[in-house]
Structure formats: structure tokens, C-alpha cells
Amino acid sequence: MQNASAYLTNSPDAPTAPAPSTAKPASSDSVERLFAQFELLYGSRLADLWRGTDVRGVKETWRSNLAGLSVGEVKRGLAACLAKPWPPTLPEFLQLCRPPTDAESMFAEAQCQVSRRVFGDDLWPCKALYWAAVEFTFADLRALSWQNARARWTRILAAKLAHEHELADVPRPVPALPAPGQALTDVRTARARLQDIKALLKSTPPNTRNT
To answer: Are the beta carbons of 95 and 81 closer than 8 angstroms?
Structure first.
């Protein structure tokens, strides 16, 4: 199947940097390529779906409503079509691209990734989840139960998912410094550093050591 990036952009090499807050409709050529893929998948069933309608108007409606979908979301929708024996309507395709979210399970996933981020081995399933966690705050993710977090978390997550195509990539974690007194040094390193200190003291004139 052709790369889905062609469906929402004029060029498959278009950048994925944050977009303006008002998403632009997909191009007419992009919609034509999308419908060409539907024809390959569904054959005459696609024509049967739109029989008796203004096909040009149908495509224009699709062009307007595909605005804001990310490349990843379109790929998800097209992949889901492989399990659908009939071509999707526009509302069905939009739901395949952006399925309903289980806010509670994503809250639990965010809690897990926040804990792993301390060690630098976190793996966020999507940008929206990471940035929702940032806005919600890592501290609250560690401290609050789902019952206490439900309303605020659901609101923040929904907003991030709706604008995921505008979000920056997840930054690499910065290893945290150990708490005072908690740093560990192996015996060999400690002895080497002690020898360095002794050598430094021997090479320093006695009358300058306390200056």
C-alpha cells in the first residue's frame, strides 16, 4: 500500500513540525489518491456506496474533514480498513483513524512511563500521552489515584489527542542526579581518587594549603 503521508500532504517529504492551530484541508490530489486506495481495497463496492450521490461533493467533504489528521492516524485508519469488508463512510473512517480513547488505561500507562523515565527507559506510545503527562504534571501522576485525577486528566488528554499533529516530539530524558549522600562509587574508583588527593597534597607547598 502506498505511503499514507501522500494522502494529507502535497509531498511525502513534507515536514512534521508543529502546524498552525487551524489545520488546512487536505489537497484534492491527496483525496483522489486516498479514494484510489479505497478502489483497490473494495473494487465495485466503493462505487456502490456513492451511487446516486454527487461524488465531487463527497470528495470535497472528505477533503475538509480530513484536516488535522496526522500521518500516523491515517495509517491507522487504512490499516483498520483491511479488516472491514465494506468501504467506510466519512464518520466511520474518521473513527478508524482516531478511535475512542480509554482515558483510564492511558492514565495508568502515563504513570508507568513517568516511573520509567527516571531511569531513562520510558517508551511513550504517542506524543499526546507524553505532553498530557507534562501538563498534568509528573508529580500528580505519581500522587493521585484515578478517581481523583479522572476529570482533569480526561480533559487534558482529549485536548492533546485532538492536536497531536501540532505537538513536538517526546524529548530524550535527562538522567537525574543522585540525592545528597546517595551517590555510589566502586572501591577501585574511590581508591584512585584518594591517591590523586594524596599526590596533590604532596605537591602543594605547606604554606599554601590553607589559602
So the answer is: no
Alpha-carbon distances, residue 186 vs 119, 181, 183, 190 (angstroms):
20, 14, 10, 6
Q: What pLDDT, in 10s, does the model give residues 139-180? A: 999 999 999 999 999 999 989 988 887 889 999 887 666 666
Residue owning grid cell 513540525? 17
Read off the C-alpha cell for 128.
499526546
Question: All 3 cell numbers of residue 148?
Answer: 481523583
Q: Which amino acid is at 134?
A: V
pTM of the model: 0.45
Residue ranges in the chain assigned as alpha helix (H): 5-8, 28-42, 44-50, 55-65, 71-81, 90-97, 103-117, 127-136, 138-143, 146-162, 187-203
CA atoms in the 13 A half-sphere facing the CB of 47: 3
